[in-house]
Amino acid sequence: MSNSERPNQIFRNLNAKVASIPMILTALVVFVGGTAWTVLYSFTNSKLLPRLNFVGVDQYYRLWATPRWLVSIENLLIYGVISLVFSLVIGFVLAALLDQKIRFEDTFRTIFLYPFALSFIVTGLVWQWLLNPDFGIQRVVRDLGWESFSFDPLYNSSIVIYGISIAALWQGTGLIMCLMLAGLRGIDEDIWKAARVDGIPMWKTYLFIVIPMMRPVFITTLVIIAAGIVKVYDLVVAQTSGGPGIASEVPAKYVYDYMFFAQNLGQGFAASTMMLLSVVIVIVPWAYLEFGGKKRG
């Protein structure tokens, strides 16, 4: 077929391209347009209603001079590190144990995954009750005879974020386990046989052979965990409402409170823009290393 008879590249898969137009328009208008609108109005002094009265970077100066915002950033960092490290470690260990073809595997998998079916609000309320010193874990242990036992992280401002992290791990680790288990089941059985023949210990097989082969699974898992970290809100509201005081404040709650309670849209927009910037700082280097390096090579 000559070049003149070949269909133009634009008209190839035309039906699929036409069908994708609504989604493209949605992405451009809702996501890109909404993001640009938020960034634009973060440079204004909008209060109850948005208005184009520009004040430069005053909102950002006020933001970073507010102790509540600094506390929320510190809490997000602590919560993020705990979620990333412990979710990956616990999820992978549970997946490795289930991958040993144990009895009642389906039952255990269902038990571990069940908390993920609950909303963060329900999870927060459950763990608020469990961590309540009057009738939760502390009360049960004291009733067993250990009168000096103390476990009330939600009522201690110095460790409250760790109590919230416990609930988050309980809720989300099951999903990570299932993702890791799917990756482990994709490893060729011949690799395990060859490792056993060579006398390689199982922990070295996992560390130096299996985990590198599961790189795509780990990347997917990291993206899911990171998305949950940045947008954490309902779990905090359900457990502590940001307390004691502002000890468990997080950026998403700061944005919501300033936009809908304090009626200060400019400050809320500035805080949400900083959240967006933190995501971009993480994603751009990763995307460059993941895709740019391959094309260049």
From TrEMBL:
Is Transmembrane one of the keywords?
A: yes
Recorded hits in InterPro entries, A to Z, give: ABC_transporter_permease, MetI-like, MetI-like_sf
Q: Where is the ABC transmembrane type-1 domain?
A: 73-288
Pfam families, sorted: BPD_transp_1 (PF00528)
Q: What CDD domains does the database record attribute to this sequence?
A: TM_PBP2
What membrane topology does the annotation report for this chain? Multi-pass membrane protein
According to its UniProt record, where is this protein located? Cell membrane
The transmembrane residues are: 21-43, 76-98, 110-130, 159-184, 205-230, 269-289
- Annotated keywords: Cell membrane, Membrane, Transmembrane, Transmembrane helix, Transport
Q: Which family does it belong to?
A: Belongs to the binding-protein-dependent transport system permease family.
Protein's name in the database: Sugar ABC transporter permease
Source organism (scientific name):
Mesorhizobium captivum
